[in-house]
Amino acid sequence: MNIESYLNAESALIEAAMAAFMPEAAEPLGGHVEAMRYSLFAGGKRIRPILCLAAARAVSGELEAVDALMPVACALEYIHTYSLIHDDLPAMDNDDLRRGKPTNHVRFGEAAAILAGDGLLTDAFALLTNRQYLRLPQAAILAIVGQIATAAGSFGMVGGQALDIANERKDVSFDLLRTIHQYKTGALIRCAVLCGAIGAGASDAQLAAMDGYGRQIGLGFQIVDDLLDSTATREKLGKSAGSDAKHGKATYPALFGIEKTRNLAQEAIDAAIQSLALLDNKADPLRAIARYIFDRSR
Q: How many distinct structural domains can be found in the chain?
């Protein structure tokens, strides 16, 4: 399969759905919604929602399963975007560029950016529980909401960000580095895969396969992010390069060097693909996404 064409087509579907779920707002909330939409529609790879939909196809192969899960996929992108807005704030990483554009707080001001992130996070759960859009069985909705809340919260993404900041400019063990990455980035990626599988009615064996894939793909994604921050340019990334070193963050290149880090990323991607061994060719997009994550340049 042509992975670039696949990702572009999936991204277009997700963009259209998000535009329907979050239309432009009139006053008095026009400015607030504009700030949310600014970051939500600023581009990006849309890897988390694409993984959610690809996991559903891998389990069921039915287009209806993908349509039913589109609100879940979009909610995941809301949450990811909120995390980027807050990551870029002066009190966090203090970045001025994201996806090739001025960061939200540079464009709208710090208070508006905080509220834009808050709005996206909260609206994600409104979308997940809106029966007009999400027409899955109630048990599946409950399981998905629980997965996302946990992955986004104190024992997931937020907890990982807290650990990341608390350990800047410190000597960090490999175990702690792995925990930071597992929470900060890996939790929401793993969650995206599991939510797609749950929504499509996966068996216990299929869920176990997806869990293994999600864990390894999340690890591989963050290791490659560490590599790119160390080796790519600001122009290529569309965001600040070298910021990890500037902030003294715990990263794989800082602990292992570039070559060993590249090997560890490859091991994680190989393990992710191997986790899907019991699934048939309907899981080929997941396999291709894994390879893309290793080969990407931004």
A: 1
Distances (CA, A) of 35 to 20, 27, 45: 17, 13, 20
What are phi and psi for residue 102, nearest 5 degrees? Answer: -55, 140
Give the number of other Cβ atoms within 10 Å of residue 4's Cβ. 9
Note the pLDDT tens digit of each residue in 279-295: 999 999 999 999 999 98
Report whether 147 contacts 194 (CB < 8 A). yes
- Tell me which residue range forms the domain holding 276: 3-295
How far is residue 121 from each of residues 75, 91, 137, 210, measured CA to CA in Å? 8, 19, 23, 25
Please state, in angstroms and rounded to a whole number, the distance separating the CA atoms of residues 197 and 217.
15
DSSP state of 101: E
> What confidence tens digit (pLDDT) does each residue in 77-110 have?
999 999 999 999 999 999 999 988 999 999 999 9
Our CA dihedral for 178, 217, 3, 259, rounded to 10 degrees, sits at: 40
